[in-house]
Structures are given as C-alpha cells and as structure tokens.
C-alpha cells in the first residue's frame, strides 16, 4: 500500500508472539515506560568485555590488585565499578605457562555479565556446552587455541551461583605499554579461555 | 552429551541482532519481577518447553516462551489472549515436572566438606528442576573451594519454599568422567551440599 518501496517486512511468527505478550503486559500496566529501551541500551552499550579488559589490564600492572582479584574477585572487580546480576559471586582463575583455564555452562548459559556482557551465541549452543567438558583439548584447538600437551586444562562449569573470569597471561613485549593500551589487547575470548593472547 | 557438531564461533557479535530479542529479554524481566520468580523457576520455565520446540528455536524464543508460560501460570494473561493477539499459535512450556515442595527442611548452614575432601555426587534422577549436571552423577571428585550458602534450585523452582545450603567447587579428572577422557584435563563443577555424599 505504501509508496516509494517502503513496504515493512511482515512480522515473523516469533515477532508476532513477542508483540502480543508486550501489548498484553503493557495494557496491564506491568511494563514501565522506556523499560525495553533501557534494557537494550544497558546490554548494548553499558556492559561488555571492555569492562573485563580493564580488570585484566589492572591486574597486569598492579600486583596488589592482582592478588586481591584472585582472592576475592567480586570485591576487586567492584573496585573498578563493575558488579550486578550474574556478577555477585565472581571467581577469577589465572592462566600460567603450565595451566590454561576455560569457562562453560553445561546446564544453560551462565556467564559473568558485568565484566563480559551477554554471552555470544556459540557459548549458548549445545555443541560448545557439551564438547568443552567432553573434549576441551580438541575443541580448543579447533577454535584456534591449540595447547601443548603438557599444559594442564582446567574447565570451570558455572553450574551454581559463582561466575568465572579467566585472567589471561600478559603477552610478551608489552612492557612499555600503558594500562589503557594493555586493556586494548584483551579480547572477550581470552577471558572465556578459548583464546590466548 | 555426544555427537554434537562444530562450534559456530564468531569473534564478536551485537547483543541483540534483532529488535524482538531485546524485547523478549525485557519481557522476561518484567514477568519474573511481577510474579517474583526465583532463578530456579525461571530456568525451569524454559526446561519445560517441548523438546522439539526447544531444539528448533533460538535462545530468545526460549526466553519468550518461558516468560509467556510464567505469565499464564501466574494469571497475568491467558493463553487464549496470547493466541488471539498473536493471530496464531503461541506454544507454551509444559507443566512443572515436580509438585511444589511443601516442607523444604532445615537450612544446612555449616559446610559438611572442606577443601581437599573426596566427595561423590549422588546418582539420582530428580523429576523436576536441578542444577546437578548429569555427567557428574555417581562420579567422585575433590573439593577445591567452599562457597557461601545459596538457595537450592531443586526446591525454589517448585514453589515458595526455600532451603539454603553451602555450594562447593568439585574437581573431577577427565579420565574419571569419560572412558576416553583427554589427558591433563580437569573439570570443575559447582554443586550444592545435598547433591554430595562422602566418597
């Protein structure tokens, strides 16, 4: 009906269902004005792996902070202003030349939102959830993170209330970099443990 | 747990590729807040989805289905209203898989186990919600960390009763979990006190 070729795409079945639930809950006064926009903004721009990268970079440059981070992750992460749902009980596990850590949630998709944001799709899908406990050494290699056979792999299944963050090893040759520059090196995948830096 | 294919790894992605996904997430927060759903009740609302629907639908369709199911079960909306408004079928999750717990029993305040203790995961099959992964049931491991006390999901998913117990991080050698467990691998699983017995 519209002119100029601006036909809106018809709603898919799932979009129609979302719209139906939204309309009914809104009519009952249960959806505060702006709530959906607020949720979108929070998860798209406020939380994400940049927060975790700041935690990691601070630990690399400040031995006292690193010690606090490994002793009480929740409190040390709160020092940088990060916390909230799915981050109330944080445990940080440290990679070393001999030990590599990786996190998974085999039951659903538990993930440390305040420091890493929302989990990527592959983290939530059955192949990752099943194979990271069943055959982590081969899966890590397949994902571009091959490890020498003498490196111990510690898998952490977030099956209760604790959420994990991997503290990656500081890359060699970064001695002259500032904390902010170091944070720029830290990837989401390195803090999940499916990549090394 | 076996036979799954490749992991569709991507280095980065936006939180909500489609607008409806953000709305579905927000609506679950609205419903869970309105009905005071526990984490266990939220997760169980998704676990009760028809398996065929679950496996063929995306992550936020799971959230939508769980949110709508809780909204209907708690009387916020009716299933007929949802289908009328959607102009078609609106599949909901099936009924709860266990009855509400009337008496949750006393809290277990003091940890029964300490770091270094050997424990075995009870080999049982609770009918309703649980956070005890199937792959460690019956397996022995070593406590590596004692955490605080937390509400037992098996109870909070099925009504208003609550019981609080310590949780532990338990280390399992891969060789003890799988017949072909990979060398130099340990798997750590966080478990509530009542999931465990001395080994």
Note the quaternary state here. Answer: heterodimer
Number of domains of chain B: 2
- Strands side by side in the biggest sheet of chain B: 4-3-2-1-5
The CATH topology of the largest domain in chain A turns out to be Nitrile Hydratase, Chain A
In DSSP terms (H or I, runs of 4 or more residues), the helix count of chain A works out at 11
Please indicate the count of domains of chain A. Answer: 2
Measured distance between first and last alpha carbons of chain A: 54 Å
Write the CATH architecture name of the largest domain in chain A: Alpha-Beta Complex
Structural class of chain A: mainly alpha
Sequence stretches where pLDDT stays below 50 over 5 or more residues of chain B = none
CATH second-level architecture of the largest domain in chain B:
Roll
Mean pLDDT of chain A: 94
The helix-strand sequence of chain A is HHHHHEEHHHHEEHH
Continuous helix count of chain B: 7
Structural class of chain B: alpha+beta
What CATH calls the topology of the largest domain in chain B is SH3 type barrels
Q: What is the strand arrangement across the widest sheet of chain A?
A: 1-4
Number of strands of chain B: 5
Look at the structure and give the mean pLDDT of chain B.
Answer: 94
How would you briefly describe this protein structure?
Chain A has 197 residues and is mainly alpha-helical. Chain A is 46% helix and 11% strand. The relative contact order of chain A is 0.16.
Topology readout:
The complex is a heterodimer of chains A (197) and B (199).
Chain A: H1 13-27, H2 35-46, H3 49-61, H4 63-71, H5 73-79, E1 90-94, E2 99-104, H6 113-116, H7 121-124, H8 126-134, H9 136-142, E3 152-157, E4 163-167, H10 179-183, H11 188-192
Parallel strand pairs in A: 1-4, 2-3
Helix pairs in contact in A: 3-4, 4-5, 8-9
Chain B: H1 19-35, H2 39-47, H3 51-55, H4 59-73, H5 79-86, E1 118-121, E2 140-151, H6 153-156, E3 164-173, H7 174-177, E4 185-192, E5 196-198
């Amino acid at each position: 009906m519209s002119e100029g070729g601006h036909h809106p795409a018809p709603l898919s079945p799932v979009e129609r269902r979302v719209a139906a639930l939204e309309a009914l809950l809104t009519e009952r006064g249960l959806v505060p004005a702006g709530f959906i926009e607020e949720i979108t903004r929070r998860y798209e721009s406020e939380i994400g792996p940049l927060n975790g990268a700041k935690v990691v970079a601070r630990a690399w440059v400040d031995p006292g902070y690193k010690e606090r981070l490994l002793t009480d992750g929740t409190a040390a992460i709160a020092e940088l202003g990060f916390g909230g749902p799915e981050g109330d009980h944080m445990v940080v596990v440290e990679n070393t030349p001999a030990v590599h850590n990786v996190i998974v949630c085999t039951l659903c998709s538990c993930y440390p939102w305040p420091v890493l944001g929302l989990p990527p799709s592959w983290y939530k899908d059955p192949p990752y959830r099943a194979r990271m406990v069943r055959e982590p050494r081969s899966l890590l290699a397949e994902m571009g993170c091959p490890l020498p056979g003498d490196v111990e792999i510690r898998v952490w299944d977030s099956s209760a209330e604790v959420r994990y963050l991997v503290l990656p090893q500081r890359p060699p040759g970064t001695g002259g970099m500032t904390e902010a520059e170091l944070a720029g090196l830290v990837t989401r995948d390195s803090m999940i443990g499916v990549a090394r830096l | 747990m076996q036979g799954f294919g490749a992991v569709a790894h991507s280095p980065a992605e936006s939180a909500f590729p489609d607008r409806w996904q953000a709305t579905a997430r927000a609506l679950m927060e609205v419903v869970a807040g309105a009905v005071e759903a526990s984490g266990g009740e939220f997760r169980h609302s998704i676990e009760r989805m028809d398996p065929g629907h679950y496996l063929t639908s995306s992550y936020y369709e799971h959230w939508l289905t769980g949110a709508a199911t809780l909204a209907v079960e708690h009387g916020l909306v009716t299933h007929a209203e949802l289908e009328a408004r959607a102009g078609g079928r609106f599949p909901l999750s099936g009924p709860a898989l266990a009855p509400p717990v009337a008496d949750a029993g006393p809290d277990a305040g003091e940890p029964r186990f300490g770091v270094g203790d050997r424990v075995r995961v009870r080999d049982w099959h609770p009918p309703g919600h649980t956070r005890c992964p199937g792959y460690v049931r019956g397996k022995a491991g070593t406590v590596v960390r004692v955490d605080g006390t937390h509400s037992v999901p098996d109870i909070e998913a099925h009504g208003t009763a609550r019981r609080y117990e310590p949780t532990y991080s338990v280390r399992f050698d891969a060789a003890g979990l799988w017949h072909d467990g990979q060398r130099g691998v340990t798997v750590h699983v966080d478990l509530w006190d009542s999931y465990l017995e001395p080994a």
